[in-house]
Structures are given as structure tokens and as C-alpha cells.
Design goal:
Keywords: Endonuclease, Hydrolase, Nuclease. By secondary structure, the chain is of the alpha+beta class. It is built from three helices and 13 strands, in the order H-E-E-H-E-E-E-E-E-E-H-E-E-E-E-E.
């Protein structure tokens, strides 16, 4: 028996992860928002008609995300922008959940924000997502017109930051720094950090 086609006017399908793999049509961002329940677990994104489910990354990744979002939000607010971690960004029929974003306006009260409101979008590269974070996602963010892309990378556990600016439809690196030096950008707002500060300090052992 064929899986049901989604009719948004019917209201007959309750939000459930059981629907993954059962619908006989490409997924869209709106379908995911309507049919999949909110959760604090894996990221659920939609890319080119497919639902992509990703578990949370390791603790190095999470520590870096915690730190950079806090510091970047403080810097962005001085320029009347807003920083957020892991929020829903809609681009056409695609639904992205980047590691962090800076928006032109507050997302207060919203479930999603359009990609056109994103000033800077960022990904923290994990071993299992290197191709997505370095090639695939930036390509889609560029297609959506996001002016700046910030990549946080850990090579041999040494953090580094690279800021890319959208030029003629492609991202070009403009600022880069590794741990022990200062990453300093002036666009789209002033922000400086030693990438080493993105790592948790280990307690001294007795």
C-alpha cells in the first residue's frame, strides 16, 4: 500500500517521527515543521527533498559552540544584531540548523527565520561532517545570499577560525587565525578572539 501524500489542509497527520520514510513525496521545510515534533535531540534538517537527521557532536564541538555564541552575541548586539545557536533557518524548501547564526533582527517569538535575515552563518567542523561543513553547506548558504560564513575547525585538536565573505556568489576567505593568535574581524561587526579560548580548560589534577 502506498504511503500517504501530505495534504496540509487535512490536518489528519499528527506530528511524529514515525512519518520519516513513510511519505511518498519529497520533504519540504514546511512539511518538517508541520509533521515532525519539536525535540531537544538530533538535528532534523531538510535538504533537496530529503530529511537529514544528525546526532549532536562531541564535547569539543559543544564547548566551542557555547563559547563562540555567547561572545559573538555580545559583540553583535553592539551593532544591533542577534546571535543564536542551532536555530531553524528556512531557504526555499530547505530547512537548515547551522551551529550558530547572527541575524539582522531578533527571532523572538518565531519558530523559523528566513535565510534572508541571516548576516553571518557558522559551522563547527566535526570529523564526521567535514565535507558538509566545508563544501556542501557553504555552497547552499552562498546560494541563499548569506553575506558571511564563519568556519570553526579543529585540526589535531587545535582550533582555528576562518571568515569568508560572499563575493560574486562564492565565499572567499578574508580573515583566518589559529590558537595562540588573534582572530579579528570588522565586518559584519567588530569581533576578536584567540581561538584557544573556544576550548574548555581542564582542571588541574591533584
Amino acid at each position: 500500500m502506498a504511503a500517504p501524500a501530505f495534504d496540509p489542509s487535512s490536518g489528519s497527520l499528527e506530528p511524529s517521527f514515525d512519518l520519516l520514510g513513510k511519505l511518498n513525496q519529497p520533504w519540504t521545510a514546511q512539511m518538517a515543521l508541520d509533521l515532525l515534533p519539536e525535540n531537544n535531540g538530533p538535528k532534523v534538517e531538510v535538504f533537496r527533498g530529503s530529511v537529514i537527521v544528525s546526532p549532536h557532536a562531541g564535547y569539543i564541538h559543544q564547548a566551542a559552540e557555547r563559547q563562540i555564541v555567547y561572545l559573538m552575541h555580545e559583540a553583535a548586539r553592539k551593532a544591533r544584531m542577534w546571535g543564536y545557536p542551532e536555530v531553524n533557518i528556512v531557504s526555499g524548501d530547505d530547512l537548515f540548523i547551522p551551529d550558530f547564526v547572527v541575524l539582522r533582527r531578533s527571532g523572538r517569538g518565531q519558530i523559523t527565520m528566513p535565510i534572508t535575515d541571516v548576516v553571518l552563518i557558522g559551522e563547527i567542523v566535526s570529523a564526521g561532517s567535514r565535507r558538509k561543513d566545508v563544501i556542501d553547506r557553504p555552497r547552499e548558504y552562498a546560494a541563499g545570499g548569506v553575506p558571511f560564513y564563519l568556519r570553526v575547525d579543529f585540526r589535531n585538536h587545535v582550533p582555528g577560525l576562518v571568515l569568508h565573505e560572499l563575493v560574486d556568489g562564492e565565499y572567499r576567505p578574508t580573515v583566518a587565525a589559529a590558537a595562540g593568535s588573534v582572530f579579528s574581524m570588522t565586518e559584519p561587526f567588530d569581533f576578536s578572539i584567540d581561538p584557544a579560548d573556544l576550548m574548555d580548560e581542564e582542571d588541574d589534577e591533584d
